[in-house]
Protein: Putative pyruvate formate lyase activating enzyme
Amino acid sequence: MQVKAQTYEPGYIELERKGILKERVEILKQILSDCTLCPRNCHVNRYSGKKGKCRVGSEIIISGVHPHFGEEPCLVGSHGSGTIFFASCNMNCIYCQNYEISRFKVGEIINVSTLADSMLYLQRLGCHNINLVTPTHYVPQIVEAIWIAVKKGLKVPIVYNCGGYESVETLKLLEGIVDIYMPDIKYSDNANGLRYSGVPDYWDVVRPAVKEMWRQVGDLEISDGIAVKGLLVRHLVLPNNIAGSAKVFEFIANEISKDTYVNIMAQYRPYFNAFLKPELARRITVQEYREAIKLAHQFGLRRIELSPWF
Structure:
């Protein structure tokens, strides 16, 4: 069903009316004492200052709050995507372009109330959504901030912008809170997930995670040029077919939906430690990118966004 972007009501508003949002906050906060938020299942008590693979305790570290005009056009619109960059990550991609944030945790420690105020600030600027970048390890604090902010008038869609390495159990607790899921699907091979991102089961994890996201929100709905609800998948083409694009597109087409909005990304650069892997130590070629596009069409994907560089 299509709705006017300006009249769309995010699901978290209804959850707050019913008292469900507060219940979700309490459930998620309990998880921090024995953390299983992501598939790492570190089982550490983050309230006691212990840290698992994400390298953060119960504090919130953000590195930026601002309108972002470099995201997908349907998120950016005329006033930008209201981006909040969270520090650290539950993955360890050796080519991460934001490695200062993801690896070195460059940012500022804030509390939940400040995070809520940041969301409201972005809304006042006219941003079309709240774009949570690398939110996985902060889900309890984020949901609590949404709960605080909705009582002060928050009413724009929530975008969950993640690496795809997500726990289905945690995603279920986000149902009705997240309006737009925007996962990466980085690899179609577990071995490459381990070699290049430090997780041993990426392909096994990302598929049920994306299925759960789609179950909750369906195909991406765009009204008046602005995305309001649904799934948007990003796939970064890597040199030497390291991403395994064919299997990624086959999975999306056959197990999710041929109407999935897929951004085939060409902006790979050998950042951070990528130069240590010769097979990653270069940009992709025009031919590699065109081959990825060809594969997406062969599997019947109908909503493809292309990079402007090619």
Notes: Strands lie at 60-68, 81-86, 108-110, 130-133, 158-162, 180-183, 221-223, 226-236, 261-265, 303-306.
